Amino acid sequence: MIMKKIFAFALIAFALSAVSCKKEKQPDGPEGPGTPEVVSVAEVQLDKTTLHLMEGETSQLTATVLPDNAENKKVTWSVDNTDVASVTDGLVMGLLEGTATVTVTTEDGGKTATCVVTVEAQIIPPSSVNILQDEYELEVGDEYDMTYQYTVDGMGDLSVTWTSSDPDVAVFENNKLIAKKAGTTTLKAAAVYGDKYDECIVKVYDKPAGAELLRDGVALSEADPVDFEFSEEVTFEVKVLPATAKQDNWSLVSADGDKISDFFEMSDMDTNNPKFKAKKDGSIRINLCYGTSETVAKYFEFSVGPKLELTATADEGFAGEGITLNTNITSATWSASYASKSYSIFKGNHPVAGFVTLADAPGTSYVKILPLPMFKTKSGGITDAPVTVTVKTAHQTAEYVVTSKAWRPYFMDKESKQELRVDDVSVGQEFTVGLKDPAGDDILIQYWKNVITLKMGSGADAYTKTGEYSDSYLYQFEEGAQSYKIEFIGSYDKTVKYEQDFSPSL
């Protein structure tokens, strides 16, 4: 039994030995024949050998270990100036302006590769650039200090560069704006970092050498006075010479101490077309000056004619009378009018309602005669009315209002001095017939009889005229008189009447 077990064990051992003998032979390793070969690192490479970063900026470095089948590809990272940069697993961060070297080292063999890192300071662009004025005006040769004429806001780099669209006109140098030639250019201030900028217009003028004053396009001369009519308004033109000079660089200054404002109302003095309106007669010398130093170019004599005046011999008169009106300017034209809505006119030099034309051609005399018309209300009564006389020159108007007085008949008992009604008159009674003005006062016959004709009825035996007073006529109806009319008839227009029926009592 024991022998059987020994035999079986031997048989198994033999079989195993046979199988082992069939394996391939292994190459010799470093540790001796039959051990596996280990591939070592030959070198390490970085994808960048130089790197530029801003402060706070990061960038990834990639290391490649060669050969590709190297057994151990582990690496370590380091930087020689930790103040300037840091590195973690190849991620490099710029910390401070300067230079540092990042090194990658293989674990197998200690192979290295480096990258030089340059870190630049972080530049913060300005938040705004602002030129304080939109426009600058200079004369050729001027140098304008721009130190306080612009601002650059922000916490970063505040430097700017200046450019001119036309350097021949003006340039920016040494913080000054230099005017070189007449013209216009655009000045630009742009931040060195970022995109902020601002622009302004620069106008350059030639220095003024003189000035002219023009009226209706004609240059005025020192030898000829500048004539004004009172109330006349004139728009002048001022030209500063040469035309390339600044045209608003001028002034008008009194030459003899009188105030210009005493003679003229002035407007638009901030333009090259000042307006003068004469408000006082007389004369004044005025200098036309130019330039900042008010150099006198020319002087002119400004002369203002008299104020138009209109006077009358009376403020009122009775119809048919003439009122004399006077003016002080021979070139004046005359007219007269009244409010025609309520009146009809019956006497005047012009038959058209609404106007009374004064005699004589315009400008032939200082004096005009206005014959006062009669007026009848459209309701039928004779009344007084205002007549407006107007005198005009080219630039002045004067008015005077006169009243044409209406007449009103009255009948008065001679003895009692009581006003009579038409049915109060008896045969043999004496009564006066006259006219009263609108105030109720008697009008003298010498006035009204030239305007009004009195007609007493018909039939010579109806009445008797017994007397004449300064303000009335005295009448007496005869026995047998019946109904009769007393008529006051306009001497110049027979259609205008005042009629009164009488029925004297027996």
- Spatial strand arrangement across the major sheet: 20-19-22-25-24
Oligomer: single chain
Number of strands: 45
Average pLDDT rating: 84
Count of separate DSSP helical elements = 3
Structurally, how many domains make up the residues?
A: 5
**What's the CATH topology label of the largest domain?**
Immunoglobulin-like
Structural class: mainly beta
The poorly predicted ranges are 1-26, 348-355
Gyration radius, to the nearest Å? 61 Å
Beginning-to-end CA distance, first to last residue: 210 Å
Task: Outline the structure in words.
The chain starts with a helix and ends with a strand. With 506 residues, it is mainly β. Strands 20-19-22-25-24 form a five-stranded antiparallel beta sheet. It has a five-stranded mixed beta sheet with strand order 29-38-37-31-33, with no helix packed on it. The chain has a four-stranded mixed beta sheet with strand order 2-9-8-5, with no helix packed on it. It has three helices and 45 strands. It is elongated and about 195 Å long. Residues 1-26 and 348-355 have low confidence and may be disordered. 5% of the residues lie in helices and 47% in strands. It has five domains: 43-120, Immunoglobulin-like; 128-205, Immunoglobulin-like (Sandwich), CATH 2.60.40; 213-304, Immunoglobulin-like (Sandwich), CATH 2.60.40.1080; 310-384, no CATH class; 408-502, Immunoglobulin-like.
